[in-house]
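Course assignment 3, question 2. Fill in each field.
Student: A.L.
Task: Predict the tertiary structure for the chain below.
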Amino acid sequence: MYEEIIGLLDFIKKSPSPWHAAQTTVNHLKESGFQELGGTDSWQIEAGGRYYTSMGGAMVVAFTVGSDDLSQKNSLRIAAAHTDFPGFRIKPDAVITREGYGSLNVEGYGGAILYSWLDRPLSVAGKVAVRGRDAFSPETVLMDFSRPVMTIPSLAIHMNKKVNEGMAFNKQKDMLPLVALFGHDGDRVSVDEMIAMEIGAEKNDIDELRRQYPDIPKSLLELLGIVDGTQWREYGGEKFGIYLLGSDIEGYPYYLLSSTQMMNQKNLDRLKDYISRAFEDIEIDERITDQTDNLCWLHFSNCMNNGGTSKLFIDFSPSASGIKGQIVRFLHDPDEVEVIADSFDEYLEMLMEDEYDFINEESIDSMLC
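Answer field:
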């Protein structure tokens, strides 16, 4: 029973919104060996199989197929549960500025016990839609502030003498969270900017990066949405250098570049002699093109010495035998240019399969120095 309780508490902690609850459920199903079925795919169902499908990011349907014949004791069983729960949804253009303070225009959802929301630290979590490749293909990311950012204040008893006699609350007037304080001439706070900063790269940076690299993997954009770079980036007023990535070189750590750094570090002149096979004694992977014109590589990671020894790229202009989007690792001394994965997703899977071997005592010590 204790393990079940701990498991439930862990699930609740990872599920601050219906969309997080659905994603947490999907993660549990994957870990338990369930196979995903696409909503528009032709399903191939087998006896003894375990399957799931998700819709809209907030609903998950999972099922197992028995291996015995159906009988009265062995038939169809269905269980259902909510992923949604009472709360407040933030409206578009939500900030209301009045008399030197900013409140948030929200819509009450579900049967909330309203007084229980008063005078307590509140956070924000949910699903954020960002611009995709076109108006018909928006992308979504999950966001969780994971800390207090607002509160719904109640009136002091001096201003409400009948507070202890019971109180009826108007959701549209009495339950608007206080999100910021200003002077009377203070600037209006932007919730969009708060969320953009929280999910990582600024929205304009993500849009520009996607414009420059139309085939950039969604998983890389999502990673930048969580943390916009780790190579001496400023977060909370302090600069941090954190090794977040690795490569096929065992135990060797790399930084993730920020969206701005990726756009600014496009000069590939140092690599063009390698790509054109100017050095006969250096073997270059045949999946890498030998044409330096119209070369399209996205530099997304530097090794622990700021890229002096090794860099990682996404190759959008491979040779005829290569795959668009393959991951290329450049190594100096001894010089090598190798394809280490067919895609960014495969590269991330490689790091997981290697159990993040770049996180070790030596790399941690170097981060602490």
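Instructor remarks: Residues 18-31 form the longest helix (14 residues). The radius of gyration is 26 Å.
Grade: pending
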